[in-house]
Each structure stands twice: as structure tokens, then as C-alpha cells.
Design brief:
The complex is a heterodimer.
Chain A (H helix, E strand, L loop, with lengths): L1 H5 L12 H23 L39 E4 L4 H11 L3 H4 L5 E6 L15 H14 L4 E5 L6 H7 L2 H8 L2 E3 L6 E5 L8 E5 L8 E11 L3 E3 L20 H11 L4 E10 L12 E2 L4 E4 L2 H11 L9 H8 L11 E4 L1
Parallel strand pairs in A: 1-12, 2-3, 2-7, 3-4, 7-9
Antiparallel strand pairs in A: 1-11, 5-6, 7-8, 9-10, 9-11
Helix pairs in contact in A: 5-7, 8-10
Chain B lengths: L1 H14 L2 H22 L12 H4 L2 H11 L9 H11 L2 H6 L1 H13 L4 H7 L8 H14 L10 H30 L9 H4 L11 H13 L7 H6 L1 H10 L5 E4 L24 E2 L8 H5 L5 E4 L8 E2 L6 H18 L23 H7 L5 H5 L5 E3 L2 H4 L7 E3 L12 H5 L10 H5 L14 E4 L5 H5 L5 H5 L7 E9 L5 E9 L9 H5 L8 E4 L23
Parallel strand pairs in B: 2-4
Antiparallel strand pairs in B: 1-3, 5-6, 7-10, 8-9
Helix pairs in contact in B: 2-7, 4-5, 4-9, 5-14, 9-14, 9-16, 10-12
Classes of the chains: A alpha/beta, B mainly alpha.
């Protein structure tokens, strides 16, 4: 009886691990160990192997996308550039569209159309640095009403604050009031674009988001003087779709502009000659640098369009900018517009 | 009727209390504050009074008046809060102040203390005098021209943290969510960060990490002592506390009803001793003690106040006041020892936003609320670090042209500035057009070319992005053109840029766009800025059309 007092837990029965439990644990551990050994030491081509001798698996693989060809064969191949002259912006645009066979020939009902104006700077329309909002308004309405496009998107990647540029150029309001939708370039909107044959931008970040499901593309560029490449016209306008560190392209400006001509094959290229920035481009800033060009061009051949605009809107006789000849070499069109234009006054 | 009262009565008693009204008021002002921070953005700023809460802050009014001698724009609104305080005591602290609301919410959320410990936590502590000392120090420094009140003013502090620390975090989070939904096949444009978050593509604020750390430090201190900031640190609370000593209404204890149970301390926000003699300058008028008193021995009243049951004035001895005064008097000149303000040692990188007044006047006005940083559409405005303006100018707005440029037709920072450090200017004045043609454009500084790093000057590589983007007409960057054979034998045309300082307005777009990105070959320094006579560069302009 006295012993009981010495061992207060003498009645205690614990919950003991059985032999079976221990074997189960050891088997589980062995299984994990074997699997781990396999994953770590199996040759690289075995399924599930974690080995990566070359280190290539860790390299980022960003699959570039390619833009489709948005061109439409013209009704009359002899007319590559339609030019409307005389009247206000709306009248001239209608004349120019008539000259190439009408907008409804190029845009089918149900098309999703992307319109790319030049909204590069935070400037009012009268300074000639950006596309005229009246043309955006007219074009978006024509697309939605006459051509019965399913959706019209308007986008650009400006140099200055995107929200401000779209607001102060009047283009954001014009596009939205006419029924279009404005896409601003936020950092998630860019993807790598693959352009076979391009010298400088074979793979380059591109404003992708607004291009999803797009079937037709129309560029609308103001005609501007440009210090380095002499003129910023229809082809140079596509620069505004590039992302990344695009300011290094000025080291070879003619190459990049001719690259742009193969990067995108637009349905139509419109050059807005309502206000021509004759000097101090491409920013402008003084109304005295702006001349009334009295013309709107709608081009199927972008090279011919730019060539005509350079000679007649910027009134520069003599040699055309190098990038137009280079674009011709790359097969984007023909510099010689003689006999390929139709002017309606 | 009596039956109805029997049913509804308890419900009404439970819900229709002053504390419920107080919570509604707090939620309202907190939401207003967040809305104001959100609306401070170029596409949303449709003339809304986004700076109103700063203009209501009487400490901002008092300190700028001490520094400058006048009341700027709408700062007189501070008198509204003064009047409310003389009537009801420090109601601002617990009914309106968004920072106070945040402290109370955090304290409530994480409070797992026992009732006994909470009662002990909420007793008055002598160290609460500290906030009055802080107030004296800051006000004396303001009177001597060094406005540092914004470091600790709760409204300013919260604006700064929201604008520079939390806003970019929200931008990024929204962008990530947008990217993820796009991956799932949804239209990512609906979560376009430029539409939702107030931000350019990706906003940067130099040194905002520390702004966030200090803000979060005070928020976290609630876990140690409830309402730590409000009770011990807040200079605005101290100012209102001084006024509350004379308030018409206050909490009054009816001593013959009181059973000394101390339950009034359970949720006392201000630690103002309602169980004994109420410390009028500490009480936030949160009304919790009235809720918690089981004997109805506490009331918020103007009538029948028992004078014996109140200590109206802050617990400040003459010795403490003198000590704080000495610190304040020494502090202001000490901040200026590095000579960043006077014109001998001014920093080349201290480039202020357009419309800013001359530097010493700027420091008399800027409360570092960073509203201007929040509204800036290009993100060029940054909180200054020690490097640019010394300790006195920390977190004041400075232009960093590595990040972006000052947009030509934008004067938003001058619109939102509540204190006139950035004077309200129009676009015409900024550009020197129309009636301002005589005085010329606002110049932020002058650009210079580093010919050792410039691609055409130093490396025979064509470039001139700087000339292309220069926004003035005629351009302030012109070129010497030369045709030369480069080292590989190819003929190249080099347009070597040079600056015309008579035309340069210092907007910095050349520096921001220069492809030599890490240390741009064209850069803007503060010399030639039009706000200071002492920092002029040119004797006279060579262009008759546009004077300097």
C-alpha cells in the first residue's frame, strides 16, 4: 500500500505507436525520398525531371504575336490615293473617300475598326501638332453609321501624359461623342510584336490591347515638319504604337520609319492637310508655323500618299525623305504617285 | 401607444445614440478624404475643392499666418473648426479627422485587452503634455520662417502618405488584377490603370518608403497605447486642446450619481479622466463614456457644469513652456545651417514647380502635403530628399527630370496648392502669352548639353531627340549640322545640339527623353529660374519677341 503513494501515475495507460504505424511512416518517408531523388537526379529528358543543365528553362519565353494584313484590294487599282480639296474638314474627307471608291467598300458591316490618330503632344488642335478632332468625329460617325462597323477604337501612345493629350487635343472627346472608344496605353496594354523583315523592330513592344479582334485599321496623321526625318506623315504616325525605349530610334530614323511601313499594313492611311505644320516640328507651338493645306488624303498606298503630301502639303520640292525610298524597297508601296491619284475639288 | 413605445423604446435607445451619429460622421469625413485624394487627378479635377480638408485645418492657417503674415486663398476656413472647438471642444479629433478615425479603427480592430487593462490604458498620462511642447516648437519655427508643421500635422501627414505611398501601391495592384483578368479572357481595358487608379503608366515617388514607414509607425503604435498619436504627438490636437479649455459644452460628471466604477474609462479615446476631474483639453468628445456609464452620471452639456469636476487647461508647467520655446528658437536657424535656402549654396537640382514663389518664401508656405505630387500628370514632381534642399525642404515638391518633364500647358499643381507655395497661375502666365507677354514665360531653370555624353557631339551617332521634343517655338535647342565620315567610313549627318538659354523654359522634356538615360547628356539646372532675381543667368534676352 505504501508503494502506491510513491508512484502517483501507476494507473496511467498511454496511447502507444504500434509497429504497423512505424512501418507506414517509414514507407511514406521512403516514398518521398525516392520521388525527391528521382526529380533531382533523373536525366533532363525524363518526365518530371527538375534538371536544367543549360539554364534555358529559367529564361523568359515571351511568345511574340504577329499583326495580320489589314489591307483590302481597292476597287480601282489605278487610284491609290484619293485627295479631297475645298470645303471644311468633313467635306474634304468625304471627297477623298469618294475618290478611292467610298468607305463602305473598305469597311464591311461588323468590322472592328481601329483608328490611330496622332495625339503625341498636349497641344490644342490649331497648332497643327495633332490630328484635327473634326476628322476623328466625321470618320468615327461614318464608320459606325454608313459602314456599320461593330466597334470603333481610337488609340495612341503619346509622349506626354496620355490622359492630358487626349483631353487637350480634343480627340478623346470627339471620339467618345461620336460613339468610339478610347484606349489609353497603360503598362499592361503592351506585348512583344514580331515583324518579319524589319531591321530594327523585328521584335519590339507594341500597344497590343486595342488590336485584339480588330479587322480593319485606319491611320490619321497630321502633315508635319520633322527636324530629323524632314516630315512626319502617314507612315511616321505608326511610331505612336511602339512602346519600350523608343527614343533610341532617332539614331537611324529613316530605317525605323521604313520598318514601320512593314510593321503594319493598314486598310487606309489618311493624311490630314487641314493644318500643315511647316516648321518647328514635330511639336510646333506657334500658330504662325501652321498653314492651311486645304487637302485631305486617303491612301491605299501609304508611300505614294506620303510622297504627294510631302511635295504638295509641306511644299518641299526636290528629293523626298530617304525613308520613302527605303519603304519602297521594302515593298510597302511606290514613291511615284503620277497617274495613281484622283483629286476631287 | 404605450405598447408601441415599449417595443420601439429599447431599439431607439440602442441605436439612436450620439456615438452612432459620431460613427456616421467619421465614416463620412474619412470617405470624403479618400475621395479627395482620388479626385486629385488631371481627368477628374473638375473644379472640385480637393484641398478643402487641408484648408479647414486651423493649424495650417495659424502656422502660415505666423510665417507669412496673411491668410492665403481659402485657409480662413480654419476658423470654422476653431468656432466648432470653442463650442463643443475637440470634436474635430473624434468626429472629423480622418487620421483620428484610422487610429480609433485600428485600436478597435486589434484590441484584445481585458477590461481592467483597458481602463488602466485609458487613464490620463502626464506624458500627454508632449504634444503641447511639439506645438510650441513648430509654431515658433513657423514664426521664424521655417514651416515644419506638415511633418506632424495629421491631415497633411495622411495626405502625403496616401498620395506618395499608397496611391502607387493601388495603381500596381489594379494593374496586376487587370493583367490577370486579361489572361482569363476578359477585356483588360476595363481595368485600365489610367482610368481607375490616379496614375501615369507607373508612378514613382522617390523616398516615399520612409513617408509610409513613419505613417505606419504611428498607426502601429495604437497596439501599444491606444490613440498614441492623438494623445501624445498631434500638434493640431494640441492647438484644439488649448481652445477646448474654453469650450461651451463639455462632459460633466454628476458626482452624487457616480459610483466610482470607472467603466467610463473602458472606451475613453482621449484619456481625459472622465471618472474624476475631466481634462477638458484632452477630451475628444467621443461620447463613449456617456454610453458606458451605467448610472447616467455623465452628460455632455453647457448647463449645470460642476467647476470642481474639471481641469480645463493643458498640464503644462512654465518650465516646460520655456524649454519648448528654447528648442523652437534654436531649431529654425539650425535647420538653415547648410545654406540650401540662401543663394550661395542653393542646389542645382532644387527645381520647383511652375508658379512657385522664391525659395525662402516657398519654405514659409509649403506644408509638404504633396497634393501637387498627386495631381501632377507626368509624375515629374517628387518629394525632395535631403540631397536637393537639405533637411528643411524634405518632402517639399521638386522636379526630377529623370522621371518625366513638366507638361507645357498644365498648371494643376498651382491649382491645388492650399497655401500658395505654388502661386495660382494660368496657362497664359506660365507660357508668357497675352497679358503676360511683357514678363515672359515662367522659367524653371535652364538646360545644358553635356557634349562628353551627347551621341552626335561625342560619338558620331545621329540623335537630337532633345531638339525634336523641345516644346517652345522657336525651339530652344538648335543644331550645328555637319556631314562627316564616321569611324567605320560611313557618311553621317550629325545635328549637334546646343541650347539657346534665352528661349529655354527649363521644362526638362529634353532631359527626360534623352537616350543617354542614366545620366542624361542634356540636363536642366535651377540657374535662370524666373522666381528668383538672384538666380538669373542672362543679363538680357537676345530675342526681342520674348523677354527673359
Amino acid at each position: 500500500m505504501t508503494n502506491r503513494k510513491k508512484y502517483p501515475h501507476a494507473d496511467y495507460r498511454g496511447d502507444y505507436l504500434s509497429r504497423r504505424d512505424v512501418i507506414k511512416r517509414m514507407l511514406a518517408l521512403g516514398g518521398i525520398g525516392a520521388a525527391g531523388t528521382y526529380l533531382a537526379f533523373a536525366p533532363e529528358d525524363f518526365p518530371g525531371s527538375l534538371r536544367d543543365h543549360s539554364g534555358l528553362r529559367g529564361m523568359p519565353v515571351e511568345l511574340p504575336f504577329q499583326l495580320r494584313d489589314f489591307r483590302v484590294a481597292p476597287p480601282n487599282p489605278a487610284v491609290q490615293v484619293g485627295i479631297g480639296r475645298g470645303g471644311d474638314a468633313r467635306t474634304m474627307l468625304l471627297k477623298a473617300l469618294d475618290a478611292i471608291g467610298g468607305l463602305t467598300y473598305f469597311i464591311q458591316p461588323g468590322d472592328v475598326v481601329l483608328v490611330k490618330p496622332n495625339v503625341a503632344f498636349d497641344r490644342s488642335p490649331n497648332l497643327g501638332a495633332t490630328t484635327h478632332p473634326a476628322i476623328i468625329d466625321t470618320l468615327v460617325r461614318l464608320l459606325l453609321v454608313d459602314a456599320r462597323a461593330a466597334e470603333v477604337r481610337v488609340t495612341d501612345n503619346p509622349i506626354e501624359s496620355p490622359a492630358d493629350c487626349f483631353a487637350k487635343s480634343g480627340i478623346g472627346a470627339a471620339a467618345e461623342q461620336a460613339g468610339g472608344r478610347v484606349y489609353l496605353p497603360d503598362p499592361n496594354a503592351f506585348e512583344l510584336l514580331y515583324t518579319p523583315g524589319a531591321t530594327l523592330i523585328e521584335q519590339w513592344t507594341f500597344l497590343r490591347r486595342p488590336f485584339k479582334n480588330v479587322t480593319k485599321v485606319i491611320g490619321i496623321a497630321p502633315a508635319k515638319d520633322h527636324n530629323l526625318c524632314h516630315a512626319s506623315l502617314g507612315i511616321k504616325n505608326w511610331y505612336g504604337l511602339l512602346g519600350g525605349r523608343r527614343n533610341q530610334f532617332h539614331q537611324d530614323i529613316h530605317e525605323i520609319v521604313s520598318d514601320l511601313s512593314i510593321m503594319i499594313r493598314p486598310t487606309l492611311t489618311i493624311v490630314d492637310g487641314t493644318r500643315v505644320l511647316m516648321e518647328n516640328g514635330p511639336t510646333g507651338g506657334d500658330p504662325s508655323n501652321v498653314r492651311d493645306g486645304n487637302a485631305i488624303l486617303v491612301g491605299i498606298d501609304p508611300v505614294a500618299t506620303d510622297a504627294w503630301a510631302f511635295e504638295h502639303l509641306l511644299q518641299r520640292p526636290g528629293r523626298l525623305p530617304d525613308y520613302l525610298y527605303m519603304a519602297e524597297q521594302k515593298g510597302s508601296g511606290k514613291v511615284n504617285y503620277e497617274g495613281r491619284i484622283r483629286v476631287i475639288t | 401607444m404605450s405598447r408601441l413605445r415599449a417595443v420601439i423604446g429599447p431599439v431607439l435607445n440602442r441605436w439612436l445614440r450620439l456615438t452612432r451619429v459620431r460613427i456616421v460622421s467619421q465614416v463620412f469625413f474619412f470617405a470624403l478624404f479618400i475621395l479627395a485624394v482620388w479626385a486629385t487627378w488631371t481627368s477628374r479635377l473638375g473644379g472640385y475643392p480637393v484641398s478643402a480638408l487641408l484648408e479647414l485645418d486651423p493649424l495650417v492657417m495659424l502656422s502660415t499666418v505666423l510665417a507669412t503674415g496673411y491668410v492665403y486663398k481659402l485657409l480662413g476656413w480654419g476658423l470654422i473648426i476653431v468656432a466648432i472647438t470653442f463650442l463643443f471642444g475637440r470634436v474635430f479629433c473624434n468626429w472629423m479627422c480622418p487620421f483620428g478615425t484610422l487610429h480609433q479603427f485600428i485600436g478597435w480592430l486589434f484590441d484584445n485587452r481585458s477590461a481592467t487593462r483597458r481602463i488602466e490604458q485609458n487613464r490620463y498620462q502626464p506624458a500627454q503634455f508632449l504634444k503641447y511642447s511639439i506645438l510650441i516648437v513648430f509654431l515658433l519655427m513657423s514664426a521664424m520662417g521655417a514651416l515644419q508643421i506638415g511633418l506632424l500635422d495629421p491631415i497633411v501627414m495622411m495626405y502625403r502618405a496616401m498620395a506618395t505611398f499608397f496611391a502607387p501601391i493601388v495603381d500596381t495592384a489594379l494593374g496586376r488584377v487587370g493583367g490577370a483578368t486579361e489572361g482569363l479572357g476578359a477585356d483588360g481595358a476595363w481595368l485600365d490603370t489610367l482610368k481607375f487608379a490616379p496614375g501615369v503608366e507607373h508612378r514613382i515617388f522617390v523616398g516615399s518608403f520612409w513617408i509610409g514607414v513613419i505613417f505606419l509607425f504611428f498607426v502601429a503604435m495604437n497596439l501599444w497605447k491606444p490613440r498614441f498619436f492623438c494623445r501624445f504627438v498631434c500638434p493640431l490636437g494640441a492647438l484644439l486642446g488649448v481652445m477646448a479649455s474654453k469650450s461651451v459644452f463639455r462632459i460633466n460628471r454628476i458626482v452624487d450619481k457616480c459610483t466610482d466604477c470607472n467603466l467610463c474609462l473602458l472606451r475613453c479615446e482621449g484619456a481625459s479622466d472622465p471618472q474624476a476631474q475631466i481634462r477638458q483639453s484632452e477630451c475628444f468628445s467621443c461620447m463613449n463614456c456617456i454610453d458606458d456609464c451605467p448610472e447616467n452620471a455623465l452628460e455632455f452639456t453647457a448647463l449645470r457644469q460642476d467647476r470642481k469636476q474639471a481641469l480645463p487647461y493643458p498640464d503644462l508647467s512654465r518650465r516646460k513652456i520655456v524649454f519648448a520655446g528654447v528648442v523652437g528658437l534654436v531649431g529654425a536657424p539650425a535647420l538653415r545651417n547648410d545654406g540650401r535656402v540662401n543663394d550661395e549654396n542653393f542646389s542645382a537640382k532644387m527645381i520647383r514647380p511652375p508658379g512657385s514663389v522664391e525659395e525662402s518664401e516657398f519654405l514659409e508656405r509649403c506644408i509638404k502635403c504633396d497634393q501637387c505630387l498627386n495631381v501632377c500628370p507626368t509624375n515629374v514632381l517628387q518629394p525632395a530628399t535631403l540631397q536637393e534642399g537639405g533637411i528643411e525642404a524634405v518632402w517639399t515638391p521638386v522636379m526630377n527630370f529623370h522621371i518625366a518633364h513638366c507638361q507645357l500647358k498644365c498648371t494643376l499643381c498651382s491649382e491645388v496648392c492650399p497655401t500658395g507655395a505654388i502661386r495660382k497661375i494660368e496657362v497664359a502666365e506660365k507660357l508668357g502669352e497675352g497679358p503676360y507677354r511683357e514678363q515672359g514665360p515662367v522659367r524653371l531653370g535652364t538646360a545644358f548639353i553635356d557634349t562628353n555624353r551627347c551621341l552626335p557631339w561625342a560619338n558620331q551617332v545621329p540623335c537630337v531627340v532633345c531638339e525634336e521634343v523641345c516644346p517652345v517655338a522657336p525651339k530652344a535647342i538648335q543644331t550645328y549640322d555637319e556631314e562627316t565620315r564616321d569611324v567605320f567610313g560611313k557618311m553621317v549627318i550629325l545635328n549637334n545640339p546646343f541650347i539657346v538659354p534665352d528661349l529655354c523654359i527649363g521644362c526638362g522634356i529634353c532631359e527626360a527623353e534623352c537616350p543617354v538615360q542614366d545620366q542624361p547628356a542634356v540636363y536642366v539646372t535651377a540657374i535662370g529660374e524666373s522666381r528668383s532675381e538672384n538666380r538669373k543667368l542672362l543679363l538680357r534676352s537676345r530675342t526681342p519677341a520674348r523677354p527673359i
